[in-house]
Amino acid sequence: MLRNAFQRKMAIAGVAESECGHGVGLTILQHQALAAKRALDDAGIDKEEVDAVMAVDFLGLPSLQVAEYLGIKPRFTDTTVTGGSAFETLVEHAVLGISAGLCDVALITYGSTLWSDRRRVTEGGGVDTRMPAAQFESPYGDLSPVSAYALAANRHMHEYGTTGEQLAEVAVSTRRWAALNPRALMREPITISDVIQSPMISSPLHKLDCCLMTDGGGAVVVTSAERARDLRRPPVYVLGSGFSSTHLSISQMRDLTTTGAVDSGRRAFEIAGVTNADIDVVEIYDSFTISVVIGLEDLGFCKKGEGGSFVQGGRLGPEGELPTNTSGGGLSYTHPGALGLFLIIEAVRQLRCDCGERQVAGAEVALVHGIGGWLSSHATLILGR
Amino acid sequence: MVVEPRDADPREVEMGSYEGPLPKPDKDSEVYWEAARRHELLVQQCSGCKRFRFYPRSVCPNCLSDEFQWRPATGRGRLYSFTVIHRAPTPSFRDQVPYVLALIDLDEGVRMMSNVIECDPDVVRIGMRVEVVFEDVTPEITLPKFKPSAGAVD
Asked: What was the ipTM of the complex prediction?
């Protein structure tokens, strides 16, 4: 039943960013409006056809606000607040909504002024004082979200002998991709030694193990494959999806080296009917270098504990065996507080062969993995052309 | 060894001198924070399935029973993971960096976040034995923190 909703029946028809970076000067709604306009142009679909709005921006009632701003009266909305992975989940919900006849064309948007606001915490603005973490974590000076991922990284090093140099490999490979992406914020090549010598933020994570902080927005248009085939750009099919959450605050995560990606990935692969060997491009939420190492393990690209050695030797970079975070990711391309939507945008561009210098030759199947909160929510999408 | 409770002496804390984030006790946690103020570490034990839990809450996350008892914890445990924080999350932590943020597995089987203090961050190791110490940060709030147990540092 669930699998029937996928089966190349649903597609991403349009994708776009607003303007991402530092000092962009747009509001949260302007980011979403600009990205939405560009994504609809990209698809060649008229605004009047949009009947579902799915906005996440950590403001009050985002889907209603964005719909009003754009002059859309939707018959279906969804604002799923699960942190940076929400956008993978919104694609899933769009697929199910269209499949069930609740809507025909879904517009998913995100906008953030994280950099302009100079906010230190990401993904929903940190901890509400009524949440348990405000009593049982914040008083101890956690540097959210970095320290949560640092706790996981240190435990991974303890259990499996993973090294700081191995984590640094992720930042180096990702920067090599960014050098090929004109939209990326940080394009100067870096070395492992640059990462290790950058200031320690929360051990074992250095500054260059951490994602950027930027402003930015993005939008994705989802519709039926049937409708998408008549549109401007080749459809990118949604082949499978999966979600899992094991906790919210990091002190409630039982095993810091194994995440919900195990379950979300398994479900997505099952629905899509593909295996790791079929994946040509990987986009994993690289909020921190450790996220990618653990993500690759949990998604089945290597065994648990072998992620550190797996990423060595440029395996994730251009010319590597497993092209990963080909836009330059959160580490080097952009990170306006939540990256999930931008991972989808890049995967779609790779599958359409739109990526110029950084194009992965012959890319047919891509895996997108969003992570939200403090390794808390995991949402996997498998896309194909 | 049970950590001996002792009365917090408000005179030890200079009024208004602490600017760090403070817990706001609620109906789930007021007993916990009141005990901490007396230098006692309490954890909830489910009356149904007998499991200990942390943080305090009104129902058991194992069996959903809403009956439980507060039990004194031994205050001893083992370091599950830690990170040394070099960049202060708020200005109030600027004079404390670098400091150790840690996850401690208490001997009762529950995990809590805290700081490891009274030692050089360089000697902290995953797996080391730690025991609770109480830091009276304001007249109302005492934070349970941890120090290496005797013999835990190489």
From this structure: 0.94
